[in-house]
Amino acid sequence: MWQPSAATVANARDASISSVPPSYIQARHLRRFAEQTAKGLDMSRLLIIAFDILGHCDIRAMTYVINSHLRRHDTYRSRFTVTGARHIVRHTITDPGAIEMQPVEYGEMTPSQWQEYLLSTPSPLDWDCFRFGVIQRDDHFTVCVSIDHIHFDATFLGTIFLEIREMYNTLMDGGEPIPLPKAGSYAEYCLREHAYTSALTFDSPEVRQWIEFLENNDGSFPAFPLPLGETSRVTTGEVLSAQLLDARQTADFEAACTWAGARFSGGVFACAALTEYELAGAETYYAVTPTGTRSTPAEFVTSGWFIGHLPLAVPVAASFGETARGAQAAFDSRTHLARVPFERVLELAPRLATSLSRGCFPMLSFLDAGVPPLSAVFAPHIRTANTRVFSDGRIAARVCMWVNRFHEETTVTASFPDSPIAHESVRRYLDAMKSVYVRVAEGRSEIRHRRATALSFSGNGNDGLFPG
């Protein structure tokens, strides 16, 4: 494992106050963490990636690689404090060269001890809210990286994999450190975001579109369509993962989307709309979905939380094709709204803020590993390196779902509060979702406008995700 040197800890502790504000999504994360901590509750916050490298780990070379990574990306120079008034202060280490991680040998550890080590990654209110470690095996070693979401997002997983693996392999082959593309600045991104949002007014078209979305949804954020039970005091989270489509079905599903005049992403949101129609009879699917906000080549090789949220309203039409076209149009026409944090909308429309529960809406995210930046360099290596991505499995205050499209399959992962009612509801939701995906892939996607059990697809068959 690696831990910061005593001098680095002192530099982080004494770092001067910065005028750079946190991004809106960082501020949301920090305030949520402070609120949960005050209640004695935890929250899901870590992104963890693990991958294999052949041979015996050269600790000196890996130390160089880890320090180079941390010094390269300016997000790691920041630590945050949250005051009693929920005000957030950023402190910044001015000299990236002052960041130094040192190796510490822990000896043999059991799987549970290793898991505990990763899960004990310091909080986002600590500077060193990241952990790097290796597990040495007979003929290879496994690199494990755990980073709090405050500095990291899923899009960057492929880049950190390549930075660490390729830099290390180059050094071990006797070469000079590889010349990585110049990274951007997350601090500059935060400044641009706040300059843009500060110029918004109640009458700005982007703000009006957000307000219209909320008003059309009865003045509220979307809600999960099935009961979750009492979740306010739930202290653990649960995760379910399932295959939606195999390789052939994934290709057939994409063909159905293309034939309908939509992309795979439009099909994903159309299936969500049809799932909620089947379960709850909702004739319009309302969702808030995350999407990446990186906009320059430099930002695509920069660590940070480059995510915004955009509101979607998808009418359920007479067929999957019509619904997919509508979903694609809704998504494409709203991508610019990802630059408008909903907190800023509520600041400008306080009458809405009084009736809304901020940030507790369900979330559906789509990641396509077949398109850049993941496809070009990451995908060819992911299998050979036995790459795995994990969540920390802590308490989830809401239902979050990630649909992931790979060449060999399409999967869904859901996190949710760990209660019996929520568990049953999410299983039921994923069961219905898989049924919709499979029927679309098999060309059995015509529907009628009827509720729940009366929803009709042409064809028969049991496509249940959880048989029995």
Shape designation: globular
Q: Main sheet: which strands, in order across?
A: 7-8-3-13
CATH topology of the largest domain, what is it called?
A: Chloramphenicol Acetyltransferase
Query: What is the name of the CATH superfamily of the largest domain?
Result: Nonribosomal peptide synthetase, condensation domain
The H/E string reads EHEHEHEEEHEEHHHEHHEEHHHEHHEEEH
C-alpha Rg, in Å?
23 Å
Helix percentage: 25-40%
> How many structural domains in the coordinates?
2
Number of helices: 15
**Which architecture name of the largest domain does CATH use?**
2-Layer Sandwich
Largest sheet: 4 strands, antiparallel
Strand content: 15-25%
Give the distance, in angstroms, between the N- and C-terminal Cα atoms: 45 Å
The oligomeric state of the chains shown is single chain
The helix-and-strand class reads alpha+beta
The CATH class of the largest domain is identified as: Alpha Beta
Keywords: Acyltransferase, Transferase
GO biological process, one term: lipid biosynthetic process
Domain Condensation: 50-347
Protein name: Acyltransferase
